[in-house]
Design brief:
By secondary structure, this protein is of the alpha/beta class. Helix content is about 40%, strand content about 20%. The strands form three sheets. A seven-stranded mixed β-sheet has the order 2-3-5-1-6-7-8, with helices on both faces. Strands 4-10-9 form a three-stranded mixed β-sheet, sandwiched between helices. Helix 1 packs parallel to helix 8 and helix 4 runs antiparallel to helix 5. The protein is flat. It binds guanosine-5'-diphosphate (GDP).
Length: about 375
Amino acid sequence: MALTFGLVGLPNAGKSTLFNALTRAGAAVAPYPFTTIDPNVGVVAVPDERLDQLHALLQTERKVPATIAVVDIAGLVQGASQGEGLGNQFLSHIRTVDAVIVVLRCFADPDVPHLYGSIDPVRDATILLTELALADLALIERRLERLQTAARTGQPAARREVDLLRRLQAHLNAGQPLRTLALAPEEQALLQGFGLLTLKPCLYVANVAEETAPDTRPALDPLQTLAAQQGALVVLICAALEAELAALSPEEAREYRAALGLTVSGLETLVQTSYRLLNLITFYTAATTREVRAWPVVAGTKAPQAAGRVHSDMERGFIRAEVVSWADLLAAGSLTAARERGLVRLEGRDYVVQDGDVITFRFHV
Ligand code: GDP
């Protein structure tokens, strides 16, 4: 199942430009059709050099990159939680995403009006956070109303939940997103299905102007400070440039980028930062000649659960994992050569999967 990112932003922040650039660029990096489930959802192949190298070495029939679904979420404007713009319609789309990407306008352009007349990413970020927080508060209030009777009759689980929800309310009312509240693991588990928006990991995309060199950009320190206080991360992307590059062939785009002194694409920057935000690492499978494939998992995942990502039977019948790091495999030249050199380790149920592991799972059927 692909990770899902929801894109939000004030009107004219460059959200649609970024969405189009990402989905087009993501389609170009892999021999993979860019699938449109819905005009507002783009499935993007994750650029992955290690996967490319493994594919070149192993010559499998297919190369299957990890994918990310990007959802363009319309309607989040000031007052959305009170019914402005598309009102609360945006909520149904955003409740289920794994992370929220907030596009903030940092480019000045007299031809593109700003809703509030000036370029001020911290103000815009605060407006958007307020809307998300109000939506969370409304959800918490509805839940509290439903719990009241049970809590009054002294049901301990209901009491505990009411206490937790009151803590969440206080935190939101203090202007803080829920992701900065310390929660016990059982509290996190309880809240998991709620779809609380400010609990989701958040990435700020500073949509900067094309022509400005890094040292002449608007001061982004205040945004960095805000993000740090909120447990969020910031990336700088020029959506207009990415859109131009996405229209070129991958080779042309690479040359153009190199001429501008850029080494990675906007999509790569976004993916790398998102993986960091979500604490994800990648392992690879290449057990047959059919395909080599990338699998993102949360850091700390143990071998049987990693196997479960591939197939539930593999987790249930897990025997052991044969593991070689991608670098060792490339250096050895083949899986057989890596085995002969003793670079392939046999690992058991307690093995914690490492970033870049190439794993063959052994399991009972
Ligand atoms: P949305 O309302 O957030 O979806 O914004 P759009 O993506 O439709 O962008 C609004 C306008 O700003 C369009 O005319 C874009 O071409 C322009 N735009 C978006 N990103 C940039 C950028 O990085 N630089 C400049 N100069 N214009 C941009």
